[in-house]
Design a protein that fits this description.
There is one protein chain. This protein is mainly beta. Helices cover 1% and strands 50% of the residues. Strand 9 (79-86) and strand 10 form a beta hairpin. The longest helix has 5 residues, at 253-257. It is elongated. Mean pLDDT is 92; it is low at 1-10 and 17-22.
Length: 363
């Protein structure tokens, strides 16, 4: 709840049943002076984030679970972000409004949840965590986030817009902050009030689907200053570690290796056992480029680069809908090697066989 008082609006923070009233004013926030202003907007005391790179961090105790509500009037043509469980600039959870879709309540990418891991926004690996939302420029819009353990529910203008069964970030507590260009008002934080939302992770829709290739060996990342020649690029010798798929079959290379400051490549290797020689269809999701080998022979290469004609459906994001092709398998064990290169946001791979008739994967 908020209470209007002459010259200020109160930010109510419930701390384990004890309400602490904190004025929404300059001394409660950390910010660059030329990027944030405190003023009255539409007759309400508000905080204005004046530029696309504005950032305002709320001072005070860490947030873990509870309900966060605020009013927002998005500005400009960029995104307006709300961060929670912010450990630092590199590790945090994020809910944001894509301002260019204001006034388009049916646009499927109006809002997005994404974690930041090592400063990388993983939006392109988590296509399923975007949705449509009814919001507009030139007016206040109400946002409510209910956060409980690994789950979150998001509402815009009192309509449910996202149900996140598993918060993907590396943090479980941290600060609250805002970013982007917008007016913010009527911020309310009710700690521990999760409206009955379970803290237990929701079901992974792929958990009982054995077609996903979940167990791989992975090389150390290496720089890739030029394009890999698929005919000569197959690795002759390398050191291997193990990596296992996360939810939805995602091999999350960003979580494993952190941010790519320059273009990098890794090699992934697994075994497919076939009862007889034949062609088997595989679907791949990838970010950004892949080169595929079976038993040392090149069979496929492709690129999935957002914002270019090379972007795969859906809109350059990493899903198994990106591409499919056939693997030529021999009877017995087959070595499948895939190299993945990246220098743009999230880095990962999803591999799923069309069927398992006559083949066995590593688990």
């Amino acid at each position: 709840m908020t209470r209007k008082i002459t010259g200020m609006v109160l930010l109510f923070i419930s701390m384990q049943g004890v309400a602490q009233q904190v004025p929404l004013k300059e001394n409660r926030w950390e910010f660059a002076p030329d990027k944030v202003r405190f003023l009255t907007h539409r007759n309400i005391p508000a905080m204005q984030l004046t530029a696309p790179d504005s950032h305002a961090l709320l001072k005070g105790p860490d947030f873990t679970d509870g309900t966060i509500e605020y009013d927002i009037e998005p500005l400009g043509d960029d995104f307006s972000s709300m961060y929670f469980r912010r450990a630092d600039a590199k590790e945090k959870e994020c809910f944001y409004i894509r301002t260019p879709f204001a006034g388009q309540p049916h646009a499927p990418q109006g809002v997005q949840y994404a974690p930041f891991i090592d400063e990388v926004n993983l939006w392109d690996l988590l296509y399923q965590f975007q949705g449509n939302a009814p919001f507009d420029k030139g007016k206040w819009n109400h946002v409510k986030l209910v956060i409980s353990g690994r789950q979150m529910r998001a509402y815009v203008n009192h309509q449910p817009v996202l149900a996140i069964p598993y918060l993907e970030g590396n943090t479980d507590r941290g600060a609250i902050a805002f970013g982007g260009q917008a007016y913010i008002a009527n911020l309310v934080i009710r700690r521990s009030d999760t409206e009955g939302l379970s803290p237990v992770p929701g079901i992974d829709p792929t958990f009982n689907d054995p077609r996903y290739l979940r167990k791989w060996l992975v090389s150390k990342p290496d720089s890739l200053p030029h394009e890999l020649n698929i005919l000569t690029g197959f690795p002759k010798q390398t050191a291997w570690d193990t990596i296992t798929a996360e939810r939805r079959g995602l091999i999350n290379l960003t979580r494993q290796f952190g941010k790519s400051y320059t273009r990098r490549i890794v090699w992934l290797k697994t075994t497919i056992q076939a009862q007889a020689a034949g062609m088997k269809k595989i679907s791949l999701g990838f970010s950004d480029d892949v080169w595929v080998y079976v038993n040392g022979q090149p069979v496929y290469l492709d690129k999935n680069r957002y914002g270019t004609p090379l972007a795969k459906v859906p809109a350059g994001r990493c899903t198994p809908d990106n591409t499919s092709f056939y693997l030529p398998l021999k009877a017995g064990n087959n070595e499948l090697v895939i190299s993945v290169a990246n220098d743009f946001f999230g880095w990962g791979l999803i591999a799923r066989m069309d069927d398992l008739d006559g083949i066995q994967l590593e688990y």
